[in-house]
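Hello,

Our lab assistant flagged a job as stuck in the queue for most of the afternoon. It eventually completed. Since we weren't sure the result was trustworthy after the delay, we are filing this so someone can double-check. Below is the sequence as submitted and the structure that was eventually returned. Let us know if re-running is recommended.
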Amino acid sequence: MLGWMDDEALARTLATGRATYWSRSRQEYWVKGETSGHRQHVVEVRLDCDGDTLLLKVDQEGPACHTGSRTCFDDGLVEQA
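-- returned structure --
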């Protein structure tokens, strides 16, 4: 899945071991699985080469996607023309 994090969300994630994101639509922090039970337990956090993207490796409980899929990227590859 793709989620938004700011410094506070990252600090909360690192402190608790649970993936915490910033909801742009609700304007509040949310912990993945807090209401659905589909928790993300953080195993590893990686920073990209220019420092503007994080990759979280997680142990996922249940589906990650709001559609009920294991991942938000199950629809397959986009074919090049």
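-- support follow-up --
The delay was a queue issue, not a problem with the job. The result is valid. The chain has a mean pLDDT of 92. The longest strand covers residues 40-47.
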